[in-house]
Design brief:
Elements: E1 13-18, H1 20-29, E2 31-32, E3 38-39, E4 42-43, E5 47-49, E6 63-68, H2 69-75, E7 79-80, E8 102-104, E9 107-108, E10 114-120, H3 126-134, E11 139-142, H4 152-171
Parallel strand pairs: 10-11
Antiparallel strand pairs: 1-6, 2-9, 3-4, 5-8, 6-10, 7-8
């Protein structure tokens, strides 16, 4: 079931980190899905998305796909990830708030849903440049040092905003 939310409350983009090796397969099938319930070495049964591009993404892959959020929400059941720990708990401030902020069982998309693909410190194979050009997908090579970093307080504030969105989504189910 798709959840309804006011578009103005959603972030403009959602980011998914992967590898150059996986990118061709993702673009061919136009889907992000956990294969064998394994993502980046962790047991997972969902796809992780972030609502900010940050230097943390480098740990999840050398390619970051920037999706237009409104388009992703039209076709997929995406929801804010909740860490399940209360703010009054001292462990709350030890949570990795920069990690999986949004989740979905899978993400189906059209090429028009992709705003841009970032290649972090990696050369782009000529075959990939052809695919991206044929699909009219913008791309950019960026240096790891140019990825933005954010304070913990900003990340916690963004988490709180997502929890407000989650509450609103649950009301509109």
């Amino acid at each position: 079931m798709r959840r309804k939310i006011k578009k103005d409350k959603l972030p403009k983009y959602l980011y998914h980190a992967t590898s150059v090796v996986n990118l061709e397969n993702i673009l061919t099938h136009k889907i992000l899905a956990p294969i064998g319930k394994r993502i980046n070495g962790y047991d997972e049964d969902t796809i992780s998305l972030s609502d900010i591009l940050t230097d943390y993404t480098q740990f999840y892959g050398d390619v970051v796909i920037e999706f237009k959020t409104n388009n992703i929400f039209k076709k997929n059941d995406v929801y804010p990830y909740e860490y399940g720990i209360d703010e009054d708990n001292p462990e709350f401030y030890d949570m990795p708030f920069w990690e999986a902020e949004w989740r979905a069982r899978s993400i189906k998309f059209d090429y028009s849903y992709i705003n841009k693909i970032y290649f972090v410190n990696c050369p782009i194979p000529l075959s990939m440049i052809r695919i991206l050009s044929d699909k009219q997908i913008k791309f950019e090579i960026i240096e790891e040092k140019n990825l933005p970093s954010f304070s913990e307080s900003l990340l916690i504030e963004k988490y709180r905003e997502r929890m407000e969105i989650k509450k609103e989504m649950e009301i509109h189910k």
